[in-house]
Write a structure and sequence with these properties.
With 430 residues, the chain is of the alpha/beta class. It contains ten helices and 17 strands. The termini are far apart.
Length: 430
């Protein structure tokens, strides 16, 4: 006499999203059920991170997505430290807003320095295809090569490596192959933009555009203006959360963008700034929203800036060479400044799941777009056999040391672990 087996809740996973739940023995029984679960549809412009399974959305700039771990995690805050002598941070804000509009996501923009929000929204860059971007890069390289050939002397021909032309053509073909193979994967996540053209205003959905101007706020006496700003954002977030709960298959991500947050032109309430970030961070954690803020950190003390950065998930900074003072070293002649990573988002994990290759990059503005690249330093001498120091190289070294010494903290990791903080250590040494 055999005793029947106790039913279990074992679930067998098979390909195609089909789950087979078995009960009793391994023999086929009438109680065996097969259920098919369809893959859950992700919101527009989102993907799952392969590093920590966070839901990511693009910043609008592919270079920035790569160095912060693939994109901005949903429910997080990205902080951009403004530069005192430039407004390059505005390009990052425009990338962020333009990507949200093309992805049919909700977009909220507010400027805390009195700028009309529609003045920024009407100047967003237009989208271009990958083929147009590759063709534009080819034309730029061709024009630069022609200019070099026209300006150089016949004796300069010996100074150019004979493989250079072949190297350029190989790089272009490699880039074209990578773009063609990744078009189907990245087409709906991050687009390319051209700042020489403006986005068509008629293509914007007015129901998904939300603005709040500084002059239009009705502030009651004795209340913090940051509290009024939070209430406006809270009502908007609740609206999108309600729509997502009603129609899960049509979930829309809400992008919040605040220019010059904590600016004295808005309010001098430092306690209100901390309270606002505390409340905003808790609100975003339970919603399908993400936020990008720019902060004029150069007008505040280091202790207060650390408090703000502690409440943000990802922190980056832009430092132009014009703001650092002195002459730009020859090694960085084609770049406009440094792009530093201060902090990487750490969601749903106790340790960093993404480690960037380096913490300091360089950025430059091409005719159509902004580029963030890795620093590549040339050898100290023009030729390996040079042993006699000249005055020009010594002058470049002194200028290089001067500009590096004026860099903010974190930029000393230009070449990895080399270089220290001592008086005789050069941050650019390997």
């Amino acid at each position: 006499m055999t005793t029947p087996r106790v039913p279990t809740t074992f679930t067998r996973k098979v390909a195609g999203g089909i789950k087979t739940a078995t009960t009793g023995s391994s023999l086929p029984t009438n109680n065996a059920t097969t259920t098919t679960t369809a893959a859950k549809k992700l919101p527009n412009g989102c993907k799952i991170s392969i590093k920590n399974s966070n839901l990511l959305t693009s910043t609008g700039l592919a270079d920035l997505d790569d160095i912060i771990g693939g994109g901005i995690p949903i429910g997080s805050i990205l902080m951009i430290e403004e530069d005192i002598n430039s407004s390059y941070y505005m390009f990052l804000l425009k990338y962020f807003l333009a990507e949200g509009i093309l992805q049919q996501q909700g977009v909220f923009f507010s400027s805390l320095i009195g700028i009309d929000p529609f003045e920024i929204l009407n100047k967003l860059p237009a989208r271009i295809t990958k083929e147009e971007e590759i063709e534009a890069d080819k034309n730029d390289i061709t024009n630069n090569t022609n200019n070099i050939n026209n300006n150089k002397q016949p004796t300069d021909e010996l100074k150019i490596a004979w493989r250079y032309q072949q190297y350029v053509s190989n790089e272009l073909s490699k880039q074209q192959q990578q773009q063609s193979t990744s078009t189907t994967m990245n087409q709906t996540f991050c687009h390319s933009y051209d700042f020489t053209r403006k986005m068509n205003v008629q293509s914007m959905n007015p129901e998904l555009i939300h603005t709040l101007s500084h002059d239009a706020q009705s502030q009651a006496e004795g209340t913090s203006p940051y509290r009024n700003l939070f209430l406006e954002i809270q009502n908007l977030v609740y609206k999108y959360n309600k729509e997502a709960a009603t129609n899960p298959d049509q979930t829309r991500v809400l992008r919040l963008c605040i220019q010059s947050f904590s600016s004295p032109l808005w309010s001098n309430d430092e306690e209100g700034v901390i309270e606002f970030l505390h409340a905003l961070k808790g609100l975003l954690r339970s919603s399908v929203c993400t936020c990008v803020i720019s902060v004029p950190t150069y007008i505040y003390s280091g202790a207060f800036v650390k408090k703000i950065a502690h409440l943000c998930d990802t922190v980056v900074s832009i430092n132009s060479f014009s703001g650092l003072g002195g002459e730009t070293p020859e090694q960085f002649a084609e770049y406009l400044g440094l792009f530093n990573i201060r902090k990487i988002a750490r969601l749903n994990t106790l340790s960093l799941s993404f480690h960037p290759d380096m913490l300091t990059y360089v950025f430059k503005m091409k005719r159509r777009k902004m580029c963030i690249e890795t620093i590549h330093l040339p050898p100290e001498s023009s030729r390996a056999g040079d042993s006699k120091p000249d005055t020009d190289s010594n002058k470049n070294k002194s200028d290089q040391n001067n500009i590096v010494s004026k860099m903010k903290s974190g930029s000393g990791l230009l070449c990895g672990a080399g270089g220290g903080n001592g008086p005789n250590n050069n941050p650019l040494d390997f």
